[in-house]
Protein 1
Amino acid sequence: MARAVTSRRKLVNTTVAWAIGLLIFFPILWTILTSFKTEAQAIASPPIFLGFDWTLENYSVVLERSNYGRFLWNSILIAGGSTILGLIVAVPAAWSMAFVPSKRTKDILLWMLSTKMLPAVGVLYPIYLLFIKLGLLDSRAGLVIVMMLINLPIIVWMLYTYFREIPVEILEAARMDGATLKEEVLYILTPMAIPGIASTMLLNFILAWNEAFWTLNLTAVNAAPLTAFIASYSSPEGLFFAKLSAASTMAIAPILILGWFSQKQLVRGLTFGAVK
Amino acid sequence: MATKASRSAARIMMAPAVILLLGWMLVPLIMTLWFSFRTYLPLRGGDQGWTGFDNYVRFVTSSAFWPAVQTTLVIVLGVLIITVALGVLLSMLLDQPMWGQGVVRILVIAPFFVMPTVSALVWKNMFMDPVNGVFAHLWRFFGAEPVSWLSDASLPSIIMIVSWQWLPFATLILLTAIQSLDSEQLEAAEMDGAPHLKRFWFIVLPHLSRAITIVILIQTIFLLAIFAEIFVTTGGAFGTRTLSYLIYQRVLESQNIGLGSAGGVYAIILANIVAIFLMRIVGKNLDN
Amino acid sequence: MSLKSTLCAATALSLTLAGNAFADGHSATITIATVNNGDMIRMQGYTDAFTEETGIAVEWVTLEENVLRQRVTTDITTKGGQFDIMTIGMYETPIWGANGWLVPLNDLSAEYDVDDILPAMRDGLSHDGTLYASPFYGESSMVMYRTDLMEAAGLEMPTDPTWQFIREAAAAMDNPAEDINGICLRGKAGWGEGGAFITVTGNSFGARWFDEEWNAQFDQPQWAEAINFYVNLMNDYGPEGYATNGFNENLSLFNQGKCGMWIDATVAASFVTGDDSTVADSVGFALAPNNEGVEKRANWLWAWALAIPAGTQQEAEAKQFIEWATGKEYIELVAANEGWANVPPGARKSLYETPEYQEVPFAQMTLDSINAADPTNPTVDPVPYVGIQFVAIPEFAGMATEVSQEFSAAYAGQQTVEEALEKAQAITNETMEAAGYR
């Protein structure tokens, strides 16, 4: 009898969750659908949901017009590079904050977060001038550094919260057994921290991928990522909803697919870290 | 527990992050402070020397200042309330057993992967357009007069767009926290006949407080700086000009770096006030 | 291999990749920043022809108008040197030229025939008589209307309508049951959007931004008359939510057959008569209107033009490109491949003397509209500034955007027209004081 109740509850849960999930996903679904319509069908009234002539024309126009591969490659390099660089800097910092906390640890953490509060546009000119001086304009290296810096506080913070969930007792036990600091980090902490690190990486990758102020303003040709690609399709003179949708789909598809595949790891990773 | 050796090792490990962030904060901050005391008009001969506190006075006495502060706070608060409230409910739902859990999760998380510019464009053109938007069609279908979302309900519209983007983040963090909730504890409470609401209030919510704190903190930082959503949808019209948008207008539209920099300093001050306020209210949760 | 060394290797790899920008294969490559309008996108398609001809490779940075403006302005004021050619408008050109930031275009070749550029365009893109940017295409504003609806209403559009007639026609064509609005006009905030439209509307009622001492004039009756007329017209016969409609929104509405009339840029003519339009066969054109008894019409003047930032290493190559893209041959190239209706309009006299082009339905009206615009005398009373739908001073863009936001709030009914005008007056005087004009 208990089983029947569970099963009915499961059905209700499933229905409600799917309804909400589809509702939340609908704008993205609609964009993807629109990208396969002709321009006239894209603004048809009443809107056509599925019964339109599916066409790949928008994609071929977009591919012909823009060097999508280069934008994509730049996005991957910048988001990936800044994530890796950020981890190298943040993991030791977060580790020491979590395991060797001092009175000032919390202050330092909060101060780090507060560096994110300087409005980007206010420092556009100073940073631009600095980039000219350093010859970093329109270079991937420059953007990798900037992306790393603007996301570093978040990485440190996230890692810190994960690391803190790792039980200290295990460490103490290891120390009793005579483990060195190196062994402690390599064989005990790292395996336990990997899920947390993985989800932090993913979060940082997404944030860097979507950042649209610095990536637009500090690049021209060589380092321009997908945000610049989108800026060449948004609000043009004329009616190009379908093409905008195609470009948007192309800009979000890679990260959506990445998210799809890592969704299980992401949730499990976050859970793992949070389990006491 | 920590030895002296491990303390100094810890300092060394922390150093790169601290030094880098110190540089990243100090260099622009000092430059912003410097420019804020100067008359700097790029289109009118560039840097024209010291001007004292003129920029600060002009920025704060401008009729746009206080409304901008208010708008900023309304948007931040609105989005926080919506995302945290819905995030808690959604994460509890997603934690229940169901078919296709993985797919539903990815559907819910998906908006977080969409660039703010893209989501603003999609919402504005395909949903909120009073003639061709999906909402307008929906309203007409039910015989109602379509709403001019971005002019007549500009702030709620922007809050809605931003909430859509950040709800996945809140849900994700809260979901992981809920999963760590001891199910035995809940079952015991259920056995005891504690009603749903009571269980939620006395067991679930306290367990989530830490995760909620993290959501609020991180979101606040991003929300104080939202820009693309306003740039694309209303361009700051209809009372949607936030402080960071006002600074954008001063720096890039009016090409007055000095004035914009003074605005930047105010924005930092506001952000820190908000941060301290937050710490007072929710900071305890971080100590446990 | 430990996690850490893997990470190190990965970083080293990504930094090397990041550092090595793709090596240039061509001897000369020019980088061009441009706006994502239809004519520019078409030009990009023909770039290969230019590269074949000259051996100069071209890299495009195509951006949406507002982003482009912020991007190129940042670069030129800081001398960032990211672009060899920038696509700019009539507003930026004289200001940047006066600052010495642009390479003067006074030594273009004889074949280029600089005297063929329409005088209004040439004047608008010059400072002190020196040309600083070559027009790729130019535009004014005009009335586009549905000939079928006008006929059904029993009215006939004169070539030079007044606002009073426009209102009468809008009333006659408005048909909410059929989802047809009598008239669609820009209301969107932004100096280049609704701000441009309301400024020319003001001109056609005899209003002006400033008197000759740079005092703001929004407290004058002409402005109140103009804006009240606009608001009443749009509330009675305009589309839902017009306060957020700009060029794109209105184009979309007109093409779907939802507008009886639309007053906007002349370049829209080729879109509303093009393939994406459902009303392509029944569009007529007329001069922009004026208020009865006012000699100025609501004509604006704009050009998207190519300019070379001073200090570029590739000045000669950049000039070569400008001569190619804004020359007569390019027009012929496009005409041969895509038909005369699709060539970039409004820049050259010779285009309007071409018999094939004269047959294009909107050609003559476009030329007449451009000729009716006079940037040095935009309105009835004398003004201290140059520009019709804008005032060519650096402060204008920011100030006019704020002013137009107040107007848009009035269109949406969030404040009265009087309140909006009061705020506009205050914003304008405040800005001018800060800039040292008064």
Protein 2
Amino acid sequence: MLRREFVRAVVSVGLLPKALLAQQTANPEPPPPAPVPWSLGLNPKTPLPVTETAEGIAEIEANFFTPAQLATFTRLCDFLLPPLGDKPGALQAGTPLFLDFLIGSSPEARKQVYSGGLNWLDAEAKTRYKLPFAQLNATQADALIKPWLRTWMTDHPPTELHADFINIAHEDIRTATMNSKAWDDVSAAAGQDWVTGGLYWSPVEPDMAGLGATSTHLPPHVMAVPKAAHTMPSYPR
Amino acid sequence: MTDTTFDVLIIGSGHSGGMAAKILTEKGIRCLMLNAGPVADVARDAQRKPAYDLPYRGFKPPGRLEHVFQANEFNANVWVDEEEVPYTFDPANPYNWVRVRLFGGRSLFWSRQSFRLSDYEFKGKSHDGFGEDWPISLADLSPYYSRVEEIFQVAGAQDGPPQMPNGNFIPVDDTWSGSMQRFIKASQAYNMPVCKQRRAQGRDGLASSVNLLLPDAERTGKLTSIANAVVRQITVDKNTGQPNGCYFVDRLSRREMHVKARVIVLATGTLESTRLLLTSNLGNSSGVMGHYLMDQIYGPGVTCSVPEARNGNATQQLMSGSAIVPRFRNITTKYDKFLRGYALNLTSHMGGVDPRNFAAYGAELQQKLHEYNGSAFYITVMGEVLGRYENHVRIDKEKVDAWGIPVLRIETKYTDNEFNMAKDAVEVSCSVADAAGFEVLSKNIVPNPPGYSIHEVGTCRMGDDPKKSVLNKWCQSHEHKNLFVVDGASFVSAGWQNPTMTILALSMRASEYLAGEMNTRNI
């Protein structure tokens, strides 16, 4: 072996482990793409943009009620919960279209109560007054509605046909109206804190496995919970 | 770590699991706790929001949680989703299985009513001939009740008749409000004891496993806990035939894992414990497992108004306070319309009256709400459901949950005994309300579906006879001495009482027995 080749061989042997180790590093740190790593920057002092609830700003169309049903329901909403004092009525609260959305998203049994009830109410108006329900005056509407109003306890609305629709719809209309932004705004203007609020729980560590493309890429792991910042409570016993 | 064998594997982290962890670890026993769900951190997972800011304005999200009447849009994410962990039943006889899998389980959310069972429950068969007696009596459990009441800071008065045993309470000595006094006077015709309500105050506003039990266990350094561990099956040692651990599925990754332990303590809540034993084919040589499912009838009740409190005249002296009327039927005399009995919860309240108490709308309704504001007096019913063999659960081989685990088939319904009880309770309540000069605004005699009370008990009942029971008086399997069920599954009868104090006391008693047996190497 020529001396030059010997030296090259020795040098190669000396370099080899380092070169191999370099290849074994699975995820070498990529060069920084910019002066600040992209995922840093957001911090507790970052201002939060102010956003509004879309309802009341955007235009909404009915998707569940037929035009005739929507006309009947709109009249029913205004009849059962008109504006009273400084409070908005069901129409000012956007209740008809909100309940169109809620009922349209609901199981079939609930849809049937509303569809059947609205069709029945309109038919009754036409039979008795030769007018659609939407065009009845307050006295005429009262004569149709009042006989079906009942008193009842939580989770036990009337099961009698027609009384079920009237009483369930009445409660839904009141709840949707009193939980609306319009109602809340009036309360706020009167100096009250928002009255319809509560502690809302987000999904807690939601199970992502069912969410399409992510389902096959979940790392195998068991979630551990970090220690709480506060100390464990200790109570006198 | 894969070769680690724990002393005790505790499955479930609610009241019963938390108590087992506290007792066992404080005696130096190394425990592993598995919980099917994550830890709930109110600072991270919850925030105050107005209803209008939610997609459904606070209504229960449509189509979700159909059988959780307690759910609304604010709390919908804390309950077990019925599609993720389904169960089956005959549509004619629906069951409301109300579950929480967050760490701490249902101990995070409960009404706090805290009662002891009496020997009218423990020895019910001896009293009226129905069902079976428990293999224990009040005297056996009384010392444990006292310790549980101390831990949970139960407030109450020593005013209970024999069917509502007194206990180790933080004294309640406030005077009855005027409306309560009127109810008490009017109720004398029924020989009806009206007692101060008993309520677990807990600490710092919470009375849960996560703040009253688990911190004690964690302080010992003997507790290891894993969240999101959905237990699929209890495993058995091939040589000894005894349970030796379990397979569980990580809720998020779906990865399956196995842990080993010398002793298994099931504390997953009555029906989940039974489901796990049935899927594991363990401990059921009696054939009793899954049978005698019980709870209490909820839903019937009466809403009244106290006339003198209307039109802005309500005062704290007239309208305030709560009371419990313990079972009074079939105590000293025999009542011919039903066996056992019911309790009444009374609440006198200065707040608003619900609109559904008036058959009115619009301005007239608004005027009624204004007039009646502050005058509400509520009477609600908790009635004992009898333990019947035919009310049972079994594995439904046709359906699995999100982790491939077979689901439970629940077949249970109320009988005339429960319906007659509900009817009687409402009739008596209306009668007393009338005699007290209250106006009855609304009433209901129809019970909610079984399960609604979230007081499901039984299905692995305890007893001295291995042919008629699953567990012995220590909540220990008759067949596997290293297998315990410390939740409500061991109940022999339901009683009218909220079961939490009894579950806690039974778990404490069973855990101390287990620790003693392990210490003397009997297990």
Protein 3
Amino acid sequence: MNFFTDNDDISLALSLADMERLATLSEHGFCFAKDFDWAPKDAADAADSYRRVLELVGEIAAERLAPTAAETDRNGSVLGDDGQVHYAKGIREAIDLFGKAGLMGFTLPYKYGGLNMPATLYTAATEIVSRADASFMNIFGLQGIAETINAFASDELKDAYLPDLAAGRTTGAMVLTEPDAGSDLQAVATRAYIADDGEWRVNGVKRFITNGCGDVLIVLARTEEGSTDGRGLSCLLVEKGPRVRVRRIEDKLGIHGSPTCEIVFDDAPAKLIGLRQRGLITYVMSLMNAARLGIAAQSLGIGEAALRVATDYAKERRQFGAAIATFPAIADLLFTMSSDLQAARAITYYAAVCVDLERGLEDKQQSRKYRNFCKLLTPMAKYYSSEMSMRVANGAVAVLGGSGYMRDYPAERLLRDSRITTIYEGTSQLQIVAASGGVLGGTLKEAVEDVLASREWDETLAPEVAKVREVVALIDEAVAFVKTQDAAYRDLSARRLVDMSAIALAGALLCAQAAVCEQKKRILSRWMLEGVAKAKAMHAIVVSGDAAPIAPQADAESR
Amino acid sequence: MRPAPPAVRNYNMDTTKRGLRSVVCVKQVPDTKQVTGDAMRPDGTINRAALPAIFNPEDRNALEAALSVRDACGGTVAVVTMGLPAASAILREALACGADEVYLVTDRRAAASDTLATSYILSQAVAKLRPDLVFCGRQAIDGDTAQVGPQIAEKLGFALVAYASEVSIDEHGLAVARRDVGSGVETTRTRLPALLTVSSAAAPLRPRNAKLLMKYKNAEPTVWSLDDIGADLSRCGKAGSPTNVSRVQSVVLAGGDYRAFSADEEGAKALVAELVASHTLG
């Protein structure tokens, strides 16, 4: 079994991403091959290596990780009397395996022992790992911590911490959330100060910290005394040690293999990352964007696992003398789940490509264009994919019926695991707010046109392209209307604007896929048929001006 | 970082200077889990074209044992196979797992070798590499003979430890092995040079490493012919193989009659007594 080679849709998404182009950007003209004997020598060599590495990820995920997922879910992590967090056996083994396989430094530079791979490749790897065990993704997917150190910390810190992180000898955590600072990170109260010895110390309590028992903690703390907003916050690196105590681990609905810790910092020694006061506004925002792409990929993996469980079951389960997959109601459910997943994958991989292009392109104007795309697409991918994973996992339970509700099948675990994806790294509601700026500002339209202008459309696809433009026109009208309304109405309409945008962007991307893959046409035409109908309905609601949910009396009535 | 190798003595080669030298013998085999109708030829030999070729499972355990000894004591691991040029695929896999050198013995004159001829040819190749330790998988899934490892040991004059499930080198430079002996576990200490056959109860092979995978993706092994290893041709191939497969039969074990036991304590006792009598239990 191999979770990469058995999934043609990932290969299709990667082939449209033009891996040779991304490799040329990340390899800086293939200058690393002379110093690092595993670095690619040219674009074709890189694309070939990328494929082999994903095959390796797919093999380990399918053969070694997936078989442990159910037991990991049952046993979870344990906080021992010794104050140490003990991972589930499967997670402990997976950390060792992925470390030995050299997969824990996917995007880090060669000089620290990394693979220097594009974000798009890491996104694919994250999806594949999550399909095997979504909870291990919370450790595999924390490579953004090393990326943050690489992007913003001093050479001294990079040299000290990155080689071990890349080799999987250490793991990290991003330590942001506090009891009173969840979505609103500006309210962070954990304090950092310079002690008499001239070194930084951190004091405070952090909550809901994924892998908070890790060795390298990036802590968001208030360094500017008397400040009250995000400009008083900085990022500090704290090593696991006697002054860092995990006080409890959460008992959760899902992702049981991932320990969620409450941590007490008791004058813990720390090192400043980069500059003071840039912690939230620059570093965490950058870290968060990578993390959101990671959660989008995790959602794809959960969706893929759920769709396969449901499809296999529907083919085998016989009722009324026939396999249930042949019944229209079940066929419709499976088809809808599959389209939903493919649309989410198209958006997520496109967002990843934009991240790589923004980082890699030297042309300032081009790079700026993709930076704007990223600001829209990263939250949109996170929102759409995570909501998709819940819908698809829920659909899988429906297809399995009573069996889906039982622990004998993985459907219920996938449903529980999917639920977190719409919450952490920013809730769906926050992603919508972040993405709606790009919709209102016209970036969405630009991104869709960018995809549509990338090729000539034959007579079979031209009608679908026309439907995409029809949806874009509806978005235009809705946006124009919203701009005449107040801020509260804009926020109220944001979800529908972003939903319409996902229909249009996924539609454009599915058109591009259908141009090179005949089987996509069936999904595409149904996607646009339903998409235009849904977009019209959302358009009607937005341009109605009806504000019932936020009208002052609504609150009183609902009580 | 690897710890410094222990002071090794008690055998004829000074490994402290060059490090412990291990050789692993591996085989590319048809994946017998994927057997289809055309897996066997009418003459009773295996139709290798009909089955995907894989790294013999217990040879993977043997390679892991060698690599973990190297991780603990230093030294080098060389991997040898005899087969068609296509067998280079498993040698590249061995390199991606961390093997230091790989060798392919390939020669038309080696075709149709039985276990006696195969072990002779491999012993010639292994001897050329002057190892302190040789690791073989307990048996290959195509022939299931478990003869090649012990026969190589015999030809090299090495001590043999079969069925090892754990291997390490102690502070005196002795090979310490846990062996599954059916009714229990035995721990042996053996002077080097020695040959160990490793069973599937041992640790699974570590995953390929992404960097090594990229580095060695087009690597070619050192290729040796029978002349290169100084083999006596009369001991190779068909000429050196006294074994002839005269007939292959598919034996289907059919159950006889059945006996019913009542679902109470008496019935259970009677069932256990029956199972003990038939040596299924006890």
